[in-house]
Amino acid sequence: MRLGLGLTALLAAAAVSLTTGCSTLAYYGQAVSGHLDLVQRARPVPDWLADPATPAPLRERLALSQQMRDFAIAELALPDNRSYRRYADLGREAVVWNVVAAPELSLTLKTWCFPVVGCVGYRGSFKRAPADATAAELRAQGYETHVYGVPAYSTLGKTDWLGGDPLLNTFINWSEPDLAALIFHELAHQVVYVDDDTEFNESYATAVERLGRARWLERRGDVPATQAQEAARERREGYRDDFRLLTRRTREALQDLYASDLPDADKRQRKALLLDVLRADHAALKAGAWGGYTGYDRWMAGVNNAQLAVQAAYDAQVPAFERLFEREGRDFTRFHRAVRDIAALPKDRRRATLAALAEGRDPSAAGSAPTPALAPSPRSP
Hints:
The chain has 381 residues and is mainly alpha-helical. The chain is built from 14 helices and eight strands. Helix 4 (56-76) packs across helix 7 (198-219).
């Protein structure tokens, strides 16, 4: 999972009033210092490529990243700016650590509100210890929590004057498809971002990453992968699809349970059974079709409402955006424009429009007036 801070640290800190509490000021302070450290470490990619001390594998990955960056502009209609034209080695495994939290009997994420970007369903820190401390405080209040490292985050294009969002050691050595997907995902946040709607923002960016990755691999057909590399990629995709299916099924069952009129004690008992089923199904996949693959073991070991809820932010509305992409003739410029139109709707109409698209219905039937961008258009050349 890649959900990042999603806030422009410097601008947010500047917006904090003098009456803000000490703990909040400390939080913004770490955001400012953490981001400035990242900016100061970053150097233009051409400098790294020209430096004889740059290891050959890193030089190769950086060169590939610039091909992806150019592709994002030319083929995916993503921003042409300074983001991902610089590289920094942070000397750690994650750029930030996020805390997410949900009540014991709900899949609704707790939200935090910030200047500039509004309210989001996570709180990030440039160091692990403060994130763990926040999670402990929330658990004491009765929340279920999850802390996870984030390899990249977006400043929504607001820090282009500082060099934009850099490439980082936390993801530069990922597989080619995953590296491309991450760059496309984070750039999508610079195209459309809605205050107080994490699910919309992340589902849209996830749709862009999947559609963009597919097009990148299609265009790269002249650079054949080895049989082993292709087989490994297909296996990973299969594991992801199985995992998404398992967790979606569990989320739906839990949502029905939490919305029921059963007493809380009964809900707790049935919740435990549903999570046991999820873990058993995962174990069966590992022993069978996955051939012992352990990539999701750690996630499953502590599975709770917070983990399931934040995962939904990535997946819940992706089918709607994919249908919208088809409706817009698989043209990314038209697609982004249509997404902006939906983003401008009030939240309830936005959700109704996406629900209609996901089900193949006319969005106007969901109570939202159709916009020109939602009209069917011919496939672009």
